[in-house]
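name: query_chain
kind: protein
chains: 1
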Amino acid sequence: MAEPSSVALRRLGLTDFRNYAAATCTVDGRLVAFVGENGAGKTNLLEAISLTTAGRGLRRAPFAELVRRGATGGWTVSAIIDGPAGETRIGTGYEAGDAGRRVRIDGVDARSSEALLDYIRILWLLPAMDTLLTGPAGDRRRFLDRLVLSIDPRHGSRVADLDKALRSRNRLLEEGGSPAYLDAVEAQVAELGVAVALARRETVALLADRLATQAHLGLPFPRAGIELEGGFNAEGAASDLEDRLRRSLRDGRARDRAAGRTLEGPHRTDLAVTHLGKAMPAAMASTGEQKALLIGLVLGHAELTATTTGMTPVLLLDEVAAHLDAGRRAALFARLDELRLQAFMTGTDRALFEALPTDAAVFQVEHGAVHRL
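structure:
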């Protein structure tokens, strides 16, 4: 199997983004650390990087909220990416009144942010995700769909279209829509729902295999078992699954009308995570164990993304080093180096990154300014 092509961000530029009036950062390393006090803007840099690929960014914030306080216009993020296509210039931004963010690739307007997936795939792990394994199922579904999106660029639009079709069905049920209209919408829900369910099933199966392989590396991160649970059983041929889901929707109209929502389908699926070493649900593990499980899961997914897409992803790891002891920090940095991917990390203390390879890049972040140490 051919080695995946290396993808790396080489330059980042910000204008009126969060707490940055204007800033540029030139990167010549694969492992990068942003160091600074809390509130200096380290996570804002990661958020800007996350907007160089498809989606709404790592915080999922409304684009209008990203404009620097006191700025009169919008915001822009620009980047130079080295990848399979050579050097690519990416620009994205927002102006007041825009329906969404604008995207340009090498100076040409792109129809949507999904076009960015041809050039860069980005994965992230944030402190806000520390409750992922114990929180609501919706958070795990969004996490799962990000995992799928890094492998299947069309998954995001399918999920969005499914959500739209479900809203249409719920509205028809509430307003007493005719059976013919409901049949048409439910056919759309079934087609999209099965496509979403099958993409999730395939990704989870591939990732489970990758995590099993990773277990033989002796990393100090517990192995996670993953499987889909509830919502819709996507076992079987696509045409048979569509028929089954369509019948279920038709038979459940009275029930769903009373509930005010659709009670069965892939939109109700959960990602079940298990601590295999202790044979127990991850939600029952300690906070430290849950963090370690997520790190192992993200590392496995990064390797899977590289092998399935032929291009290494970029990792964004916010405050991850602070929650690890020295041994696990060193193991994390070593594994990132072995995977030969680019990773951006943040921390309040430079000492957290002493175990980084000598060719790593460390930047000081100080309230709207970034400079190389």
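note: The first helix runs from residue 42 to 50.
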